[in-house]
Specification:
Strand order of the largest sheet: 4-3-2-1-5
Order of helices and strands: EEEEHHEEE
Oligomer: single chain
Helix content: 10-25%
Number of helices: 2
Strand content: 25-35%
Structural class: alpha+beta
Shape: globular
Amino acid sequence: MDVIVTPAEGGTVWQLTDLLGRSMGRITASAPRQFMIHPEGHASETMAGIQQGPHASLDTALAEIERHTRGVCRRILAKISFSGAQRPTIQLVGRVSYIYCEKIYVFCG
């Protein structure tokens, strides 16, 4: 199962959602090298038995989720919003210093 990881609350909380946008829980950083996985909703059953932590890093916590769910964690780095015919607004999320893109393609189904 693939998981979308979105930073929230000042870099100490990451929201987990599935590809349909349903909440799967969150990861919290309570102290340096103290990352905890908190499954919720339908993910409580999917992640039953997962090592919730503490994990030494966000990447280690995400690797545990990937190993347990046999999926991929996709980190959101930017949010793109459109207003009319104007150019899109790109807001960097989390601790990203830059994103280099020559072109952005958006497909809506």
